Amino acid sequence: MTLTFASPESDSIIPLQVLDSAGFDQWKEAQPDALRRFVEASGFKPTIGQTLLVPDSDGAPMIALAGFGSEQARARSRFPLAAAATKLPKGTYALTTPLPAGDLETEALGWLLAGYAFDRYAKNTGSSAKLICPEGLDAPRIEAIAAGEALTRDLINTPASDMGPQDLEKAARAQAARFGATCTVVTGAALLEQNFPMIHTVGRAAAPHRAPRLIDMRWGTSGPTLTLVGKGVCFDTGGLNLKPGGSMGLMKKDMGGAATVLGLAEMIMALRLPIQLRVLIPAVENAVSGDSFRPGDILTSRKGLTVEVNNTDAEGRLVLADALAFGAEENPDMMISMATLTGAARVAVGPDLSPYYCDDGSFVSAVETAAQAVADPVWRMPFWDPYEKMIEPGIADLDNAPSGGFAGSITAALFLRRFAEGQRYAHFDIYGWNPSAAPARPKGGVGMGARALLAALPDILSL
């Protein structure tokens, strides 16, 4: 799906007046009598999502009004202008209202994202109201960000029947071809030969054509090095610790970390950031068969650390561990993992926030500032060292699922940190799913944290 701005040379451009609660009465009093009476008779109020198309004397659209709400309402709603985009009829609109400079790019992006719909299996459409890119904004940049987000959404929304490990590989290879990147893949038994034992173990029970694999994409030849690692569990049954039906229904999204790093990579490469990018995706299906790994098994990781499996449904950290250890061997300037890793993170912060773990002060400062600026909220969680003993079972170096149920997201992050030891490292425990429709964010797969990271990269990597 292509999400682009309308051409400034479009025919029949409709001026778009954005009105907030504070200035509405003053604006109304300054209008000609006929326009003021029409607005009053229509019952239009400047609340978020309210729109009004005002005709001229011939009945053609003369101006469109869009509610922007109060400052308090905007603080509780991301992309408030996008709420108007979905209500306006098909047409080309041009903003005539000066929005705050800090909001303008975000609102323009939200308008583009309001045009997104997942239409692979049924006819679905997003907003058909097109916007001319507001003056002063970098249209190609915003379109590149929208394209990356659309890619992430499409990948997550696609069911496992059409998004297995082999399909995730196909998506990565297609992306690499678009941008002149290289993409190598280690598949099946070759994972054991090349020392990725835990990726192989988690995925070995799947059908042969859905064999486990490690996808390794590289782009750029100069500049600081950034390695993105995304969890690519294309479906998670829970393995022999089988999930109940109610918990399995959304498991097509368990590759949301992979989808998000591919979306972020799309943005980075389209914008030609001066970095050397590497994307590592352990792509598996956690299936059930006679060859499934078992509770109580002890696995030896690429790094040499042994892991006791106390729950086969805690498989994401196992495949990420081998990928992180592999990425750390090159000592990149920054390594970031993204994964739909724990239900504990959702209990802690809900579906909107992207909880993350990092002890690097400059990274934290850059991401926190960027997240607020681009309306992509994050929340820092602690690498709490006293909990390290919770992931040390005694019979092996590490426990993949400590008993007791406490601090599940933190213990998972501490587990991953063991495999990124010595690296400048951050981990995002994302949800990857919007449970109910919101402006510019329809129900379904959604990117989390990628736009905040993109905006922060110049500071993170000193570009």
Automatic annotation (TrEMBL):
Swiss-Prot/TrEMBL keywords: Aminopeptidase, Hydrolase, Manganese, Protease
Organism: Shimia marina
Domain Cytosol aminopeptidase: 311-318
GO molecular function: manganese ion binding; metalloaminopeptidase activity
EC number: 3.4.11.1
GO terms for cellular component: cytoplasm
GO biological process: proteolysis
Xref: SUPFAM superfamilies: Macro domain-like, Zn-dependent exopeptidases
PROSITE patterns: CYTOSOL_AP
Name under which the protein is recorded: Putative cytosol aminopeptidase
Recorded family membership: Belongs to the peptidase M17 family.
InterPro entries named in the record: Leucine_aapep/pepB, Macro_dom-like, Peptidase_M17_C, Peptidase_M17_N_1
